[in-house]
Amino acid sequence: MSGDSELGFTEHLFKVLVIGDHKVGKTSFVKRFVKNQFYEELKTTIGVDFSMKVIDWDSHTRVRFQLWDIAGQERVRGLNRVYFKGSSGAFVVYDVTNRSTLDGALNWKHELDGQVMLKNGCPIPAVLLANKCDETKVWNASLLEKLCQEKGFIGWFQTSAKENINVDEAAKFLVKHILQNNEESEKEEEQNMQLNLQQQSKSNSTCC
Ligand SMILES: Nc1nc2c(ncn2[C@@H]2O[C@H](COP(=O)(O)OP(=O)(O)O)[C@@H](O)[C@H]2O)c(=O)[nH]1
Ligand SMILES: [Mg+2]
């Protein structure tokens, strides 16, 4: 969603999902990104929590990031179709200290791709976050690289919501891709409109 002002200033509102298994640090990631805070103890998310972060991308582009922090249990409840609708991008989070959450992240990605896509039929941009990297080093970087290619992630970052590692970097990376997609789809729409107009004027001129 975007709006242009007369001065060429554009504001975008992007819905971005934060998904992954329970306790991998989704809420912590959002709180670090939005408020630059970290809490050792957090209440379990129930259903979905919303947060907003405004980023002045450049002198003529403002991005409103609407983050949907979805409870890990929601995959089981099958409500994701409702939550995923209209999203422009996603962070898919796993916990580097818990291997099974990487499988969980891949299942979340699979479900995401089955339920939401861009207008051109491509998957929405998703970044894989290897969170809690303050606890242990990511030893399987080449595996993650391979998984990203196989499963269609646009990239991966090792992050720590606790130590504030790569949180803004991952977000900027995702914004960049969302903006690119947005630009491409706007161009496509414009081209389609011009084609329609050309066809209309052709059929008008051949009439009678
Ligand atoms: N060491 C460490 N702990 C984290 C990090 N992110 C979250 N946690 C902890 O992991 C637990 C679960 O975090 P939470 O954000 O509630 O996970 P969620 O269920 O995915 O939303 C909490 O005790 C957090 O303090 C991190 O980057 N490093
Ligand atoms: Mg949570």
TrEMBL record:
<dbReference type="GO" id="GO:0005525">
    <property type="term" value="F:GTP binding"/>
</dbReference>
<feature type="region of interest" description="Disordered">
    <location>
        <begin position="185"/>
        <end position="208"/>
    </location>
</feature>
<dbReference type="GO" id="GO:0045335">
    <property type="term" value="C:phagocytic vesicle"/>
</dbReference>
<dbReference type="InterPro" id="IPR030697">
    <property type="entry name" value="Rab29/Rab38/Rab32"/>
</dbReference>
<dbReference type="GO" id="GO:0008333">
    <property type="term" value="P:endosome to lysosome transport"/>
</dbReference>
<dbReference type="InterPro" id="IPR027417">
    <property type="entry name" value="P-loop_NTPase"/>
</dbReference>
<keyword id="KW-0449">Lipoprotein</keyword>
<dbReference type="InterPro" id="IPR005225">
    <property type="entry name" value="Small_GTP-bd"/>
</dbReference>
<dbReference type="GO" id="GO:0016020">
    <property type="term" value="C:membrane"/>
</dbReference>
<comment type="function">
    <text>The small GTPases Rab are key regulators in vesicle trafficking.</text>
</comment>
<keyword id="KW-0636">Prenylation</keyword>
<dbReference type="Pfam" id="PF00071">
    <property type="entry name" value="Ras"/>
</dbReference>
<dbReference type="GO" id="GO:0005764">
    <property type="term" value="C:lysosome"/>
</dbReference>
<keyword id="KW-0547">Nucleotide-binding</keyword>
<dbReference type="GO" id="GO:0003924">
    <property type="term" value="F:GTPase activity"/>
</dbReference>
<dbReference type="GO" id="GO:0005770">
    <property type="term" value="C:late endosome"/>
</dbReference>
<comment type="similarity">
    <text>Belongs to the small GTPase superfamily. Rab family.</text>
</comment>
<keyword id="KW-0342">GTP-binding</keyword>
<protein>
    <recommendedName>
        <fullName>Ras-related protein Rab</fullName>
    </recommendedName>
</protein>
<dbReference type="GO" id="GO:0090385">
    <property type="term" value="P:phagosome-lysosome fusion"/>
</dbReference>
<dbReference type="GO" id="GO:0005802">
    <property type="term" value="C:trans-Golgi network"/>
</dbReference>
<dbReference type="InterPro" id="IPR001806">
    <property type="entry name" value="Small_GTPase"/>
</dbReference>
<keyword id="KW-0472">Membrane</keyword>
<feature type="compositionally biased region" description="Low complexity">
    <location>
        <begin position="192"/>
        <end position="208"/>
    </location>
</feature>
